[in-house]
Amino acid sequence: MMRGCQCHFTVKRLYTRPLIALLVYNLRNHVDKSGSPCHGILDQDAIGTRAMYAPRISEELRQKVMAMLYAGVSLDSIVQHHMEFVHKNGGPNNRDDFLTRNDVRNMERLIHSSSHQLHLVDESSVAIWSQRHSKHVFFFQEASGAEPLILGLQTDWQMQQMLHLGQNGCIASHSAFGLKKLKSPLCSLLVFDSSQNAIPVAWVISSCDASEGIHKWMGPLMERIRAKDNRWRPSAFLLDDPSFNTSVIREVFQCRVLLNLWHVRRSWIKGLMKRCLNFDVQREMFKQLGRILYCTKTGSGVRDAVEEFMQIFVDHCSFMDYFKSHCLAKLDLLVKAINTLPVASQESHAAIESYHLRLNSNFVNACHSDSRPRNDWLIHILTTEVHSLYWFDQYITETGFFEDLKDLSLSPNSWSRALLIPDTDVLLDALNPDIAKVISQTDRKLAYTLWNPGSEFSFCDCPWARRGNVCKHAIKVSLICKHRQIASPSLNAQVYRQTLLALLQNPPDDPLVLEHAIAHATRLQQEIKGLKDLSNSGLLPPLQSDRSVRQDDSFVFYPRTQ
């Protein structure tokens, strides 16, 4: 039992012959859960008397304890929790249940003595790590000549999350993280749990632009997932970089692709906060930048909007220089993506922003700041500290243990907090629809002002929004405006409407395609009318607030349930 041996038998005594017992073997081989010999002549670790002093725990428990140590749980807390867990399950019955302080102390020493630098040369160190942890690598291409470094990472726990939460859910990309601070930028693939928090299920480190090597690593990742479940398929892929090859994503994931504007919104508002100190000018410029993206019907409309914007704010040279050097060159590609792809809702913005801030805090607070540029350091931080914190948060949610140690950075995101604000705390002025007010939930005497309500480019004066983040007040007002139908159509609804108008003005030549489109449009119109009649007659029960607002956009962010 101490060695984790699964060999066991049942003893049956014969009633007529009490001095004889019948032994029925349930498992005759002396192996552990993984099927490896755990004692005897076949076990290399059991030679001589070593089996008495070197019993080993399972890999599953080792990973669990290591994750707790990386998450900051003390040695005494881990041992006490394990004893309570074993007692709750009826006492010890295998080697894992005999976890001792020495076991945990040995793993703690291993963490303190381990080093991310396996070789003086960074590229060689990454190659050595990939060989030692091959089961966590789904794609690896060494940097040689014209070929860039591409390393795809996914642990067993991340694979489980992708299989569970990604099935009929959303997969989102968070690309180009650390473009200025890391030697190679990081691209993350995210899924969303029932609380709409983003969970990383794969990391891709690439020395080239993430869009250039997407056709190389995305296929092997899908093969890895399909090997576990060949019926696995997400409902949508949220793309944050318009330079990505959408045809590759559709072919690999076999789902629709949506455009996520969180990176665009954040970079613009961060640029304004840094280069323009006047708050009134900030919100007006941000509103005009949003109008540029709204002019997506024709290329001339976009160019006219850009020229008008630059003429109005020509005196603000600092931001204009930033806009010309960083934004203007990518604007055509962004507008093209908006014209061809549906746009994801703000719910995904809040979830991805929460992940970005969490990831950024992990790297800023890292103690090995002198080794930050190296790729082996990045791999070490991702697979130990970042991975352990997300695992530990899920462990707390599932078991209820260590609630006092739960990481505050994984608290509900802005979307979840917005749903807690009562509708009565939102004040809309019918005479001035460009302004809304939201009463503070912590100080009832304070009300925050929101400009351009209902838009993806609304601007709030609360401290969280003033730091360039998506705040709960903006999301709550947006939900209210959509529910009451008092706001202008969102960007995704406008693009959807323009697509339908273009289809009506330029019908397809193929009569079969035209007939199919008309049939779908007629069916949708009848369904909408039927739902409206049911609602007016009182036969349709009222929807919950968080569900109703998710259905008013043409393209929404689908929640996951555990």
List the keywords.
alpha+beta; 20 helices; 13 strands; four-stranded antiparallel sheet
Helix content percent band: 40-55%
Indicate the proportion of strand residues: 5-15%
Biggest sheet record: 7 strands, mixed
**How many DSSP helices?**
20
What is the SS-derived class? alpha+beta
Distance between the termini: 35 Å
**Envelope shape:** elongated
Residue ranges: pLDDT <50 for 5 or more in a row?
49-54, 538-562
Order of neighbouring strands in the sheet with most strands:
3-4-7-6-5-8-9
Number of beta-strand segments: 13
Tally of separate domains? 6
Radius of gyration (Å): 28 Å
Which whole number gives the mean pLDDT? Answer: 80
Describe this structure in words.
- Keywords: Metal-binding, Zinc, Zinc-finger.
- Residues 448-482 form the SWIM-type domain.
- This is SWIM-type domain-containing protein.
- A hairpin with a 5-residue loop joins strand 6 and strand 7 (198-206).
- The protein folds into six domains: 1-55, no CATH class; 59-113, no CATH class; 122-260 and 343-398, no CATH class; 263-339; 414-484, no CATH class; 491-534, no CATH class.
- Helix content is 48%, strand content 12%.
- Strands 3-4-7-6-5-8-9 form a seven-stranded mixed sheet, with helices on both faces.
- Residues 49-54 and 538-562 have low confidence and may be disordered.
- Helix 10 (279-294) runs antiparallel to helix 11 (299-312).
- It is built from 20 helices and 13 strands.
- It is α+β, with helices and mostly antiparallel strands.
- It is elongated.
- The chain has helices spanning 50-53, 59-70, 75-88, 101-113, 122-132, 156-166, 214-228, 246-253, 262-275, 279-294, 299-312, 317-340, 346-364, 375-399, 414-418, 463-466, 472-484, 491-505, 511-537, 545-548, and strands spanning 8-13, 21-27, 137-141, 150-153, 170-177, 186-192, 198-206, 236-239, 256-259, 426-428, 435-439, 447-451, 459-460.
